[in-house]
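Kindly review this protein for my students:
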Amino acid sequence: MDYEEIEVASAYSEVLYASDHERPFQTAMNGSYDLWLSKVCESEATRRRYIEDIQRFEKYTESVHNLRVLDIPNRWREAKYTSEMSKEKLLDEFKDLVDGYFSFLKDGNHYTSMSINRSMTVVMSYLHYYDIPIKPVRIRHPYVIYHNRDITKEEIIKILDHSDVRNRAMFLLLFESGMRPSTLVNLKWRHIKEEFLARRVPMKIELTSDILKCRVTNRYVFIGDDGYQALTKYLSLRLPLRDDDFVFVTEKPAGARMRTSGVSQLFNSTITKLGLAEKRGTKPKALRLYCLRKAFRKFMATQVDSAYVEFWMGHTSTATHYLSEDVERHRAIYAKGYKGLQLFEPRTAPTEIIESLQRKDEEIKKLKQDVEKLKPLIDFVNRLDEYGSLQTFLDLVKNSEVIEFPNKGSFVNLDLDEDEVAAINELAKKKGISRQEAMRLMIREATETNKETSDSETQTTNKGQK
């Protein structure tokens, strides 16, 4: 690339940079890009970034080299099948093209080292997809310039206090779970249904692979008491929901899925109104939506092993690979870390809540046992309406023995002396039966004896008459 080309590229960088920030994103792309994008892009967000970068590269090639990026694959195939010399000559041309674009990105002072490397990665991905053997060009030691600062708990509380019911729930879920905004807007009722209805706190949120960045394996995160209360208040306005209904939806148009950019704009407008961060030209504000996710990591990592924090944030490493998959263990560890995360004073200490619930469970269990023991008495009392009032029955049994005849539906008051009571008790003990059953047995035997005596007397009388 000669001096004149460098001058043209430098002048053009100003136009290109301005156009990138002024024009709306163009989603329509030529079909030749689709095959490449479908192979290298796993998510819609990645696809949009790749399209932006390849469009920037194409503007450069058309302006400086009068070359369309879409023509590169055909030119390469033509040279490859013509002769070795044509092939090498075209490779040199492509190498100069890539080196020139790299210099253009660096000299413009508009892009960070990480952005430059990302743009070059996209270009190399496109070339390598068509088997064009160009060595990668990149900044060897890229560095990150962080434009945002740490957000404080006081600032988060202030933001929440000036947010409506839906926005408060969204911001608290991002802060208490550490999930990405792109995951939040894709949450569906089935991801939270079971634990939300069970009122379990910390509440687990299932994160399936299809709503996670880079399609990592299924994960789960948790929210604490503050997040659960905010979510409950918001969903009370929307329930009942179907499994595939989105948790957070727009107000206008009503019921549409939220967009990540929309949530970010809501957060930015709130901090601007509160004067928490000022605009800085084209640079991001000192506070932005991602600061909530960053705050989760900061406050949670002071209480628990960082490997668990990385797992909940959707990161993958050797440490997260060897973590236990026991949900209840994760829940207990999150509950421990939540002490450093919680924004508002708990109404009752978590340990006191658990102990109180345990005591209530024991009391309920004991009451059920007592009721089971009293069931015969309850059934007996319920039948009193058939035989008379309870007071009449109590008067009847006072200082006497009472026997029930179930078949006849009546009670008989037995006026027994001490010897008869002793005989009943002895029979009940001997037979291993209740006193009621012993009294019935004695009455039955006495009745049969009287019957036999009566029959015998009748027979004797008949014989005398004959």
User: Anything to note?
Assistant: DSSP finds 21 helices and four strands in the chain.
